[in-house]
Each structure stands twice: as structure tokens, then as C-alpha cells.
Design goal:
With 249 residues, the protein is α/β, with parallel strands linked by helices. It is 43% helix and 16% strand. Helix 11 packs parallel to helix 12.
């Protein structure tokens, strides 16, 4: 039986003072018994978050990472830096990174390898655009993304990989894939992992859903057989809202 994993991606929200308020609120409201809970603040808030999360069951993650280890790469943040401030997880390949910064499957794959080489866990995002769904090529797009982002990863690497399916058309739009639509893509992803590796690996891997997840729709989404958690955006920015997604599990 796979445990549920709920990750909150704060995106470019919350300064250090707001971070302290949110973390303190989450520690009071989030009772994670059989659920892994992760928060991913902006880089500037990671140190504050790490200090406040000491003694808590909530894990710390980052929203991105550089493929470079160090050097003259202004604005980049290395995996060593993230690990030094207590990050256990890193998100790579979020649709906003693909859309606004033109990140390719190959670059995302390189970032995933950096995270795994540092003995951290990685959340790798995949998902189709509205145009791709309307053209009925979702399966083709997801298949190409999965093969690209997992290239060169071993079965043992997959033990520290979470895949997050996030339909781009449902992120920050208020729209949401129906539980059936989401489950269909999750089944496809699990099938692909089974074909690339083994069914044993496929049965164990955590596949999250991301795309306007809210307390109102979380229970039905998370009740699907192949949906093992959520990558939450806007709804993770308030303690009660985030707790409302986690508490029914």
C-alpha cells in the first residue's frame, strides 16, 4: 500500500516574515499521521522554514535546482546549497519552468540526476497543455515526457522519485481534471514506468496529482487507486486550506 504524499508549492509567494506565520500555522493545523507532508517555500525562505520545522513531521523541499555544482552562474542555486539548509525534496520540471523558462525534458532529467546524486528525493512534473489535450495527444505527450525525464535513472533511483502529473490547463485556472481524467493519466504513467523498469517498481512509485487541488475536490481525487497524493499550489498558502486537503486522508 502506497502512502499519500502531499506537497505544497508556494511558488513566488511569502517573504521571510510571512513564511514564519505560515509555518507556525501549519504546525498547528496539519496533523500528518499516515501522510507525508512537504512544504516548498521560495529560496529566500528556506533557512527560516528549516529552523521553524525542527521537531515537526513536515518535510522541507525546494522549487527548483541548478544543473551546475558551483561557479559563475549568477542567480542559480545548487543542490549542495539546498541540502545545506535542510531540503529533503526538490521539485523539477514544473509546468511554469517549462512554459516560462523553456525547460526541456533533457534539462529536467539532468536536474533530477543532480538531486538523486545528492541522496535527496525529487518530484518530477509532467503534464499536457490545453491545446495538446484538445488535439487528443495527451498520451503521446505524457509518454515522451516520462521517457525523457526518467532517461538513465536506475530502479534504485526510482525509490527516491515522485512523479507529479499536472495538466497545464488546470494550474491556477480554477479548472480541474475530473477524477476519471486524472486517474486515466496516472494509470498511463504507472504503465509506462512498468514497461521501462518493472511492474514491481511501478506499483511502488508515488504519483501525485497537481492542478487546482482544493479541500473541495481533494478527497475524491485522492480516492482514485493510482493517485497517491497532491502537488498543491494556491491552496497551500493558508494553513486551514492546506489542512483541509490533508485531513480527510
Amino acid at each position: 500500500m502506497r502512502n499519500k504524499v502531499i506537497a505544497g508549492n508556494w511558488k513566488m509567494n511569502k517573504d521571510v516574515f510571512e513564511t514564519a506565520d505560515l509555518i507556525n500555522g501549519l504546525k498547528k493545523s496539519v496533523a500528518a499521521k499516515n501522510v507525508e507532508v512537504i512544504v516548498c517555500p521560495p529560496f529566500t525562505s528556506l533557512v527560516v522554514a528549516q529552523q521553524l520545522l525542527k521537531g515537526s513531521t513536515i518535510k522541507l523541499g525546494a522549487q527548483d535546482v541548478s544543473v551546475h555544482d558551483d561557479g559563475a552562474y549568477t542567480g542559480e542555486v545548487s543542490v549542495t546549497m539546498l541540502k545545506s539548509v535542510g531540503c529533503e525534496y526538490v521539485i523539477v520540471g514544473h509546468s511554469e519552468r517549462r512554459q516560462y523558462f523553456h525547460e526541456s525534458n533533457e534539462l529536467i532529467n539532468q536536474k533530477a540526476k543532480k538531486v538523486l546524486a545528492a541522496s535527496m528525493r525529487v518530484i518530477i512534473c509532467v503534464g499536457e497543455t490545453l491545446e495538446e489535450r484538445e488535439k487528443e495527444i495527451t498520451d503521446k505527450v505524457i509518454t515522451a515526457q516520462i521517457k525523457g525525464v526518467l532517461a538513465g535513472l536506475s530502479e534504485s533511483d526510482l525509490e527516491r522519485v515522485i512523479i507529479a502529473y499536472e495538466p497545464v490547463w488546470a494550474i491556477g485556472t480554477g479548472k480541474n481534471a475530473t477524477p476519471r481524467q486524472a486517474e486515466d493519466v496516472h494509470q498511463l504513467i504507472r504503465k509506462l514506468v512498468g514497461q521501462i523498469y518493472s511492474w514491481n517498481v511501478a506499483e511502488k512509485i508515488i504519483i501525485q496529482y497537481g492542478g487546482s487541488v482544493k479541500p473541495e475536490n481533494a478527497k475524491e481525487l485522492l480516492s482514485q487507486d493510482d493517485i497517491d497524493g497532491a502537488l498543491v499550489g494556491g491552496a497551500c498558502l493558508k494553513p486551514d486550506s492546506f489542512a483541509g486537503i490533508i485531513s480527510p486522508i
